[in-house]
Amino acid sequence: MSSSAPQETGRQRLWSVDEHLADVLAAIRPLEPIELQLLDAQGCVLVEDVTVPVALPPFDNSSMDGYAVRVADVQGASEEFPAVLAVIGDVAAGSGELPTVGPGQSVRIMTGAPLPPGAEAVVPVEWTDGGTGGGAASGMTPASAAPEGAAGEVRVHRAAEARAHVRARGSDVQAGDLALAAGTVLGPPQIALLAAIGRGTVRVRPRPRVVVMSTGSELVQPGEPLAAGTIYDSNSFALAAAARDAGAIAYRVGAVSDDADTLRATIEDQLIRADLLVTTGGVSVGAYDVVKEALTSVGGSGGPGVSGGSGGSGRSGEEDVQGGGVDFRKLAMQPGKPQGFGSIGPDHTPLLALPGNPVSSYVSFELFVRPAIRALMGLPDVNRPSVRAELKADKALGSPAGRRQFLRGKYDAGSGTVSPVGGSGSHLIAALAHADSLMVVPEDVTSVEPGAELEVILLG
Question: In the β-sheet with 34-37, what is the strand arrangement from edge to edge?
């Protein structure tokens, strides 16, 4: 995203998006590593390289159900002149003692079973008569249903090359190989690999615990009846879901009324289970914007506070409304102008206070909270990916001077274009639900013509 110089409006400074994000990230420290069981580590970030202790697979094994044979014994085999071999036993997956295959002999073998001594290849059962004395077989008779099938003769109708249908020892990974590097996020395939090489636990940074709460006496929980002047609380649901999507463990707190004491008590109660607190609403200049009022006394002293960030000019009482360890400021962006950030409580738990309009809170989450969550996880790349795309629209898009605007968009990767979705109003939730990206209009641009190129932040 393009940068901008700090702006002054009277005595109130406007901070740039880049400055505010830099301040947030400068105060975030990755969570301390812990040892977790594999399934508990899903979604976490490795803090150490994991090497392979034993080769995978640990032994030569069959990739097919069929017969383990010597190559010379099936050379030239055909439907008209099949090779007839003695079946001297069964080898199933997990078998211990293995029979040795000699000249003119074979062993019935199952997928994943170790290749017995003397055998050089595996012929699939479909290349044989399955030991029935008839034509080509389509499958094998279960050993429990016909144990006598483990012995007798099998007719092989096709020749096999050496190592045919054999998975070689170490063909996946060799002992000493790097299995997973530090910094890897553990998803299902990575957990499968760890289990396959015998790791029961792994050292990771835990998923951050994020507590999300909405403020506002007008908010009603979904499923309850609406009274006059009330609306449903969507912000806490949206941001809790967004926190989970970012990799966190999210705890949603029901809407808190516009009472500073109640909000203060709620925040203090939530500190015990929070690595990061996120509030939405109550950060502007209204008479009932209680987040500022509540955080004036709940803020922890000696916390990281907020420095001047990329602007380097620090802070002053005239520029920001401060609440203990939390600063409130206005950003040169739309939507999401009012923002708060700092630390609270004895452990200096980071807190981000977002505006209450639904689109403003979601855009603010994507720009500031999501990177904070990723930083807590210890990930080097904390931002959403972005691309350049051509604006596809019927008319030019307007943008306020001196503000970085984030408009909802629909990105078409095939054509490299992006189209606006809905208007610029910060209350338009329906449009947000149909967008998959944010179009970024720089601070020094007031109009974007169709066909112009824009930065596009991808949300999917």
Answer: 34-37, 201-205, 45-46
